[in-house]
């Protein structure tokens, strides 16, 4: 008789794989990407391609020549990092800056810690923040949305809605309200901003897809969004809003503009850099929601999503000390 | 619909191959090997000698302690030797070797198909009969049944929970037993309720067996105190602690037995054995086994007497399929891969599963991506990613603090891991180490 294979139980597997999870996240990003190509034209297409290609190249070079390991490109994580990095960049960013961002993401963010699964900080955000500090002008000049026209670089540039929101609260100047996009435009993505963050609708669709396919759980996005919304409600209640802006409007602008939806559904939920347990995830989300609103309200930058996530990434080892509720454990 | 509250996974149930196949008797072998370890606890002590003639149902070996079980002869014939044999996993174990001659039964065993309803025995008499018949939990753990029927002082049983879940994929023997012997099961349940002096029993059945739910419900209508609870499909619902949670919403605390929350759990196959022992004087000498797999010629549910070589059961099902890579004793989640099919069947083996070569190999593990799916899947609320890392680093104290001893070996963590990491392998190793440390500590205290 031929040799039988012997291994310990279980002998069945769910069929899940790293590759499958990465692929589903990439799929979930596609609706938002389609919107940004429509809105920002060739710039969105080229920036994303350069970012993905550069991330793949740097990972391959590092595994091949420095670690002397077989390539891990087929787990698709480098592609995902590249795509997420591009989503966090203005679509008119010069190509060489995109490449530098990819280099920072893959080296500082990922491979220096030992590759996939080992890094403490979200690699795409490490890349973005590196660029934000190194190239503040280019990183904060966003093209205006083109609608269905196409063009590259020569598009008009302008500030994002978050800039006006901040100034409005700071100066109590209600004339700035006219510079804001309508709430419908903000929901559909017809406004300035980083490549992938503008269309809240597409990002929410992608996020719900990820929750339904059980790639992510509800804890992080829901706790971020609720915390930020609550913060905005309090801002309205203490009378910090100028005339002509209701609390309800402010809450919606808070949630629909900037990197809120992209951060809540795609950046903060990165497996490697988020906590392992339900309560850990909820505290992680509350922390991000609070920090982002503090930065948006009082900080030097108009947007704080990247910083908020990176700061909370650093707290993850601590949050992982929170245990899940054991079977049979009495509720305290 | 009810289910347990923490974790769990959804493997394909793959029961289509052998579901609804009527229970078929396996022919008697010419030579049989009856292992003396067919249960958890001390090995049974042989009470027969070489050359002795025995009949079906005669005691071959008596329980070797409080937690142990009698073993009876499944055949009539001559004892040829008492020696050791190699079990399916390559381990040596003591066994009685027999030449099978005819099929002569002890006269007190009732072999008629009549269903005997009346039972006027006192609880003590029932428990004695169960113990004498060598009945063990046939759900897989093989814990001697009479021990469960004697709650420790200060504890009182309130409800009997009948395990008709059969959450292991592929296996269908319990399902078929409920369909064919529902009436006997209902009598067995009443006998156990009598033995425990309780008036409530709940039969938990997963909803992928609607005909069994309907059949047991129909019978429960005529029986006072017995209720059928359809359960949502989720593995490991047949785990004792999970089933109690699903049926009565109580969670057995860490390290405690079900009796702590007033529950006694028995599998349907065990209860059928109780019926046969108490009403028909038939000791536990056979069980229903599922022989299955996608390429098996005649998958089905076979009633097999213990000691029959597995190879004869396999022949009955049409032989080993061409594409077989792995043969599993039990189901795919908790069953054990075997390297020897000459070993005899015993009380422990609830099924034989043939997996094709293509499904037999572990996939090369990748880095842990900290997706937390193992934490979500663990039905005991543990952190498998952490425990396996601690085991790798030999951090035994930390493993104990992280409740590794609560692990029930269900395999949900490894099943769900997208990186195919050998989580449970490491956890098992750690559990063995920590268990040793705890026992040594307790011994030192004494």
Strand arrangement in the largest pleated sheet of chain A: 1-2
Number of domains of chain A: 2
Low-pLDDT stretches of chain A: 148-155
Number of strands of chain A: 2
Major protein interface: A-B, 38 and 68 residues
The mean pLDDT of chain A is: 89
Write out the strand line-up for the largest beta sheet of chain B, numbering strands in chain order: 1-14-13-17-15-16
Quaternary status: heterodimer
Order of helices and strands of chain A: HHHHHHEEHHHHHHHH
For the CA atoms, what is the radius of gyration of chain A?
A: 21 Å
Beta-strand portion of chain B reads 15-25%
Overall shape of chain B: globular
* Unreliable residue stretches of chain B: none
Question: Which features characterize this protein?
Answer:
heterodimer, A: 332 residues, mainly alpha, 2 domains, two-stranded antiparallel sheet, 14 helices, B: 446 residues, alpha/beta, Rossmann fold, six-stranded mixed sheet, four-stranded antiparallel sheet, 17 strands
Describe the structure.
The complex is a heterodimer of chains A (332) and B (446). In chain A, strands 1-2 form a two-stranded antiparallel ribbon. Chain A has 2 domains: 18-139, no CATH class; 160-319, no CATH class. In chain A, helix 3 (77-87) packs across helix 4. The longest helix of chain A has 25 residues, at 42-66. Chain A has helices at residues 18-40, 42-66, 77-87, 95-110, 123-134, 136-139, 161-171, 183-188, 200-212, 219-237, 247-256, 260-267, 278-298, 305-319; strands spanning 142-143, 157-158. Chain A has 332 residues and is mainly alpha-helical. By secondary structure, chain B is of the alpha/beta class. Among the domains of chain B are: 111-280, 3-Layer(aba) Sandwich (Rossmann fold), CATH 3.40.50; 373-445, no CATH class. In chain B, the strands form 4 sheets. In chain B, strands 1-14-13-17-15-16 form a 6-stranded mixed sheet. The longest helix of chain B has 23 residues, at 423-445. At the A-B interface, helix 1 of A face strand 15, strand 16, helix 9, helix 10 and helix 13 of B.
């Amino acid at each position: 008789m031929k040799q039988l294979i012997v291994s310990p139980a279980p002998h069945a597997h769910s069929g899940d794989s790293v590759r499958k999870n990465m692929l589903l996240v990439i799929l979930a990003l596609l609706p938002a990407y389609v919107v940004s190509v429509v809105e920002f034209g060739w710039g969105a297409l080229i920036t994303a391609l350069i970012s993905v290609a550069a991330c793949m190249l740097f990972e391959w070079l590092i595994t091949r020549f420095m670690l002397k390991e077989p390539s891990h490109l087929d787990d698709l994580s480098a592609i995902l990092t590249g795509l997420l990095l591009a989503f966090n960049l203005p679509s008119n960013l010069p190509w060489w800056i995109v490449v530098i961002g990819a280099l920072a993401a893959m080296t500082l963010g990922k491979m220096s810690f030992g590759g996939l699964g080992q890094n403490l900080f979200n690699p795409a955000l490490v890349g973005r923040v590196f660029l934000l500090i190194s190239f503040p002008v280019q990183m904060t000049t966003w093209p205006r949305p083109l609608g269905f026209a196409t063009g590259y670089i020569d598009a008009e540039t302008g500030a994002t809605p978050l800039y006006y929101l901040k100034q409005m609260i700071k100066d109590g100047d209600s004339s700035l309200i006219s510079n804001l996009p309508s709430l419908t435009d903000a929901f559909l993505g017809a406004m300035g901003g980083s490549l992938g963050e503008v269309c809240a609708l597409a990002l929410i669709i992608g996020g719900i897809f990820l929750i339904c396919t059980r790639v992510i759980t509800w804890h992080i996005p829901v706790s971020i969004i609720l915390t930020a919304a609550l913060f905005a409600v309090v801002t309205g209640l203490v009378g910090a809003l100028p005339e002509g802006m209701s609390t309800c409007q402010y809450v919606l602008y808070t949630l629909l503009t900037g990197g809120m939806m992209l951060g809540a559904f795609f950046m903060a939920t990165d497996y490697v850099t988020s906590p392992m347990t339900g309560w850990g995830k909820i505290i992680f989300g509350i922390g991000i929601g609070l920090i982002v609103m503090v930065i948006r309200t009082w900080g030097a930058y108009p947007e704080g999503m990247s910083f908020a996530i990176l700061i909370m990434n650093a707290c993850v080892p601590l949050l992982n000390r929170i245990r899940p509720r054991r079977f049979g454990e009495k509720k305290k | 619909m009810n289910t347990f509250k923490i974790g769990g996974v959804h493997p394909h149930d793959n029961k289509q191959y052998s579901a609804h196949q009527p229970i078929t008797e396996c022919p008697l072998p010419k030579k049989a090997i009856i292992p003396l370890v067919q249960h958890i606890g001390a090995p049974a002590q042989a009470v027969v000698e070489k050359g002795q003639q025995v009949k079906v149902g005669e005691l071959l070996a008596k329980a070797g302690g409080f937690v142990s079980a009698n073993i009876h002869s499944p055949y009539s014939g001559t004892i040829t030797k008492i020696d050791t044999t190699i079990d399916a996993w390559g381990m040596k174990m003591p066994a009685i070797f027999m030449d099978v001659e005819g099929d002569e039964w002890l006269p007190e065993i009732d072999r008629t198909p009549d269903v005997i309803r009346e039972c006027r025995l006192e609880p003590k008499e029932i428990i004695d009969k169960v113990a004498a018949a060598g009945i063990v939990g046939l759900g897989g753990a093989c814990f001697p049944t009479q021990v469960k029927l004697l709650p420790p002082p200060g504890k009182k049983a309130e409800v009997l929970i009948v395990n008709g879940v059969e959450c292991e994929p592929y296996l269908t023997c319990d399902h078929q037993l409920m369909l064919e012997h529902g009436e006997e099961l209902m009598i067995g349940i009443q006998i156990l309720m009598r033995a425990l002096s309780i008036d409530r029993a709940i039969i938990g059945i997963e909803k992928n067996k609607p005909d069994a739910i309907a059949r047991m419900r129909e019978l429960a209508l005529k029986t006072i105190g017995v209720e059928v609870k359809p359960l949502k499909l989720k593995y490991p619902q047949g785990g004792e602690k999970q089933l109690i949670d699903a049926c009565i919403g109580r969670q057995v605390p860490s390290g405690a037995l079900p009796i702590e929350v007033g529950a006694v759990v028995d599998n349907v196959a065990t209860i059928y054995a109780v019926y046969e022992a108490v009403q028909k004087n038939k000791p536990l000498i056979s069980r229903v086994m599922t022989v299955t797999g996608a390429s098996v010629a005649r998958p089905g549910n076979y009633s097999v007497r213990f000691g029959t070589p597995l190879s004869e059961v396999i022949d009955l099902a049409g032989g080993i399929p061409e594409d077989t890579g792995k043969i599993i004793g039990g189901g795919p989640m908790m069953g054990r891969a075997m390297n020897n099919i000459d070993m005899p069947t015993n009380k422990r083996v609830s099924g034989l599963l043939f997996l094709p070569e293509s499904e037999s190999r572990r996939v090369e593990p990748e880095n842990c991506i900290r997706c937390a799916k193992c934490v979500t899947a663990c039905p005991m609320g543990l952190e498998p990613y952490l425990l396996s890392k601690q085991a790798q680093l030999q951090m035994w104290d930390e493993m104990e603090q992280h409740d590794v001893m609560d692990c029930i070996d269900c395999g949900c963590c490894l099943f769900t891991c997208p990186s195919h990491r050998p989580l449970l392998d490491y956890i098992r190793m750690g559990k063995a180490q920590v268990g040793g440390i705890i026992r040594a500590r307790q011994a030192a205290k004494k």
